[in-house]
Amino acid sequence: MMRVPRRCNSALMTNRWFVTALAVVLLTAAGVRQGHALDLVRDGRARATIVLPAERNPMTEQAAEYLNRYVERITGTKLSVVREGANQAQTGSCVFLGDTQAGRAVGLDPATLKWDGFRWKVKSGNLYIAGRDIKFPNQAADSYIACRGTLMGVFRLLEEFGGVRWFMPTPKGELVPVSTRFAVPDTLDHKEEPAFAYITPGFDRLGHWSRANGFRVAINLKINSGHSWDEALHNWDDPEELYAEDPTLFAVIGGKRRLGRKLDPEKRITDAWAIQRGITRSGNMLCTSHPDYVPMNVAYFSRLFDEGYDWAEFGASDGFHRCECAKCEAMDHVDEIAGNKRAFWTEADWDVDAMHEGVPSAERLWVPFLEIAKQLYAKYPDKRIMPIAYSPTLIPSQKVKAWPPNVVMELASQSEKYFKAYANVADKTAYVYWWGSAQPAGLSLRMGPHRTARNVRYLVEHGVKGLYVCGGTELFGLEGPAYYVFAKLAWDPNRDVEKVLDEYYAGVYRAAAAPMKQFFALIEERVPIGMKQAGTRYAKKQEHVYGYYPAAYPPEVRKRLWGLLHEAKAAVTSDEYAANWLALTERQFRFADIVTRVFEHYRDWLKDKSPAARQAAEAALAEHRAFLEELTALKADRAYLENWFPQWNKYVRLAPTGGNLNGQLNNKKPFNGKF
Ligand SMILES: [Zn+2]
Asked: How far is the CA of 328 from the centre of ligand 1 (A)?
């Protein structure tokens, strides 16, 4: 016999149903249309009790906490929480969370759901929200790496029936409508399963906003930022001692076996972090024909799998250099000079064909990797190893024709050709670079919402199971709509993009929604135009910004964009909320406007060296300095920043350089003070 919380859905239910039925009849008689609904709160009073599974599960408990926190914010009322089987009196309906016996009794089995998917069901006057809730053994309870299916069910419930929205990752970025009632339809029976198992690493670290919008890692994944050699080497032995005893595990570069760079925590924060992880030397290049290369990697990944990880990323050190020893050289014809010439990595933009026939495949990496994968598959058949198809391994192996089923390919380039070239790998994930400040657009809009939606759908259609998202989250004023569309479509690619956007503009800019919709549509239109001028070759020369800004934002476009911003401002003069979000957008657009004018005037000056052009360029540069000073001054107003400037620290840190690599300004004329 199932044990259900006392008085939840048995004898008392008949009674309650009778009362409800009567109420409906009475209300209908009075001419008030009353939909059939299950109330959690009505007239400001609790009408339901949250019921947790008898066995404690920290992920399900978090779902209860969030549900109660938001129900209270909406209605001012909290629901009481009991554990299944406890002898406590209930109020009204039950909201069964997670894997309960009552849920099982009505046919809910969370184990059948994909990743952190969930199911909602209303049955006999009770609501069930059940998803897979797994705290991974090697992760803290509050880690972004966890399977929180029930919590996702709670967030989606709050969105659908409470009208709650998480537009921005700040306390002011949440929309929580107040009501005396919180109810769900009593016909509810609905299942959701996400398109991706994970979206990492920046979007998943922004608190409630991340969780509520589905930015999380729902598998126990070890990400090594694409590069695992340093970790594997340090796990094997101390690199310096190893090198002193027998340096042959290290690659021959320029005729000599070389150790990786010694870390300097004083100079680089990333070095300090690496030292905390036990790394002393980084960027180690290895001799992959060395007899220890395979066992070293097998040992490291075995350790990760023993710790509890289910998936782990594999990759050679970045800035790859091949080993010049005779044995390695006999394995292929890889030449990283070809890499420097961008034969491996010509194009970050997948619209352009990025497959390079005739470029040699790095068999020295692929062939030993096959051995590593096979040995791991024999030891851990349920665990996955994820090599990154990037830089030397962008081109697939010609020698390895079939991969064991534990291999998941992480594609750094996602053109159709790559999907075809890696058709012999069952599962794929992607490493995407949609919003990085190393792009020519620097700190102006890099990718808008419509392109985001197309990209997400394209990857879903190609069976991509997870996303490593490099860059992004520092530009909410200009990219907020794209981030929001990303969140919604990455969870459910069938969402209507225009509806999602309308909801965003209305929720954030309120009375200024119409001009802001036009503003964002226009600015998004400009990105490909700027990119075309910047040159499509990625990292060809670091001069892209010169081409980008003036082409993306010519005077007539800037005039239209400013016109829309002014119209928007006029619409929200008495609305502090919308005015503050508008101010963020205006500030971030102003930066692009100033940078564009600096380049325009500088070009004029280059043409005729007229004092007037020089003066105009100097004036725009002064505006640029004033902008940066203004940003620095904002640091005094912490309350403003914490509420109305999401990721301000990232933005403020990036603004002086304008970005890096192709997006960097301060190393270019005239931003470097030279004409
Ligand atoms: Zn070698």
From this structure: 4
